[in-house]
Amino acid sequence: MPLALVPSKLRDSYPKSLTVKDWDKHKSLLAKVFAKPTGISAELEATKDTFEKIDWNAYSVDGNMPQGQNATLEKLEEVKDSILSKQKPLKDAYDAMRSLSQFLERKAVELSKKGTNVPDSTVKHIRKMADEANKFSYSIAPATISDLVMTDYANCKKSMEAARVTRLNGAKIAIGYLASTIKIGSAGNIKTVADYESYWSENVRGIGTGLVTLVVDYPELKPLIKQAAKQWAENAKPKQDKDVPQAVADTVALARQMAAVIKPK
Prior knowledge:
By secondary structure, this protein is mainly alpha-helical. 68% of the residues lie in helices and 0% in strands. α4 packs antiparallel against α6, α5 packs antiparallel against α8 and α6 runs antiparallel to α7.
């Protein structure tokens, strides 16, 4: 699966210049000439709190996909649609960031008025913060995140479709293997425990394990693979010659069932 775009881009992307810690480094000159509280620290803190309420992992298509047999294209659509429905946290953060930008711009105008004696460098920094908030708001806007989610989805789908082609090519090989198992088992030449041991080693062992990856495309295989795990286990092999015919017949029957399930798609 490809790297999830949304968390990797945004989890740690909050602008340093919009934190209270950074603002504290720039407000010392302001405090000396402007005794009235500006409210900037409170706005910065409230905006960051809103941003941090977002669970960015929830916006990763790849990160929310199940693994193995449950990773189907149908599930991919379900995950994508579920993620795209989670708009409120994004909108809240976007609105808060836009509000912060506007607040800082107003504050810069207020502090630049004649008679406030606020240093130009401080006003300039506040305007820079307002611009940073404005720019960052677009990177977390619901529409922007939706675009990233769709890119993540497209990458996942492409990867899954490529994996499916590989699996279905493997199914063709499996059909040939099962055909050999059926043909040899039906020939009537397996009569002793030694014969069965050779047949099992060369034509039976590993079939179930080899078919596991195909369950996502052929879910009907799942109970047959479970049956094979018991029926074709090392300790389930016939111990006496008289039991061999039935063991072979059961093996051929199960192999036929598996072959019937695996159809070209």
